Amino acid sequence: MPPDATTPLHALEYAVVDVETTGTAADRGDRVTEVAAVIVRDGVVTDTFASLVRPGRPIPPFIVRLTGITEAMVATAPPFAAIAPVLHTTLTGRIFVAHNAAFDWAFVRAELDRAIGEVPEVPVLCTVRLARRLLSHLPRRNLDAVTAHFGVSIDARHRALGDAAATAQVLVRLLDLLGQEGVHTWGDLETWFRRPVRPRRAMPGPVTDFRIA
User: How far apart are CA 29 and CA 210, in angstroms?
Assistant: First the structure.
């Protein structure tokens, strides 16, 4: 369920998620090999969850090269069903955030449904979608480009926790930019998304206000 329209954005809790997978198609049998969720409220990381996952199917060689996650690493990892209850609890009552959220949400939703037959009703917020509007001057808005713009380093690129932690920092900076736009509540954000996109000039500067509790 969406938050009350008057809820300040900084007062909401965000579960910033990244998944690594065996491929790109959650609806055609690809599975999660690693998942992470970084919880953010008021610019502070309050909790993290991360786990390798035994996918129950082979990991293609090009995925191994991209992520560094090997068959040996997942051989003793829990199946998704074993972590599903904890992940479900972690997501419930929070805003699901990811960079290219449609991809990550499709996999999380499919895995939760398969494992426990229950998917939390959560709002989904995409940092790519935010970046396209707030950073429209950038030629690309993938995670590498946006983190470079904000001066955010990524520890362990293409690993779930590294990418989720970097996306959490990006989210905090984007929420600051929304505030400069006069977007302060969830209702403001919904209205803002309906407005036409305006071209923007560069707004350089690293993240300086991201804190870890």
Answer: 37
Q: Along the 213 residues of the chain, how does pLDDT read in single tens digits?
A: 789 999 999 999 999 999 999 999 999 999 999 999 999 999 999 999 999 999 999 999 999 999 999 999 999 999 999 999 999 999 999 999 999 999 999 999 999 999 999 999 999 999 999 999 999 999 999 999 999 999 999 999 999 999 999 999 999 999 999 999 999 999 999 999 998 876 555 444 443 333 333
Q: Identify the structural domains of the chain with CATH numbers, from first to last.
A: 9-201 (3.30.420.10)
Q: What is the CA radius of gyration of the chain?
A: 17
* CA angle (143 as vertex; 71, 87 as ends), nearest 5: 55
Distance, CA of 136 to CA of 148 (rounded, Å): 15
Q: Looking at beta carbons, which pairs linking 116-120 to residues 24 or more positions away fall under 8 Å?
A: 116/81, 116/84, 116/85, 116/88, 118/88, 120/88, 120/91, 120/92, 120/93
Q: What is the pTM of this model?
A: 0.91
For residue 82, the number of C-alpha atoms closer than 13 Å in the C-beta half-sphere is 12
CA angle, 20 as apex, 60 and 186 as ends, to 5°?
A: 150
What is the 3-state secondary structure of 95-112? EEEECCHHHHHHHHHHHH
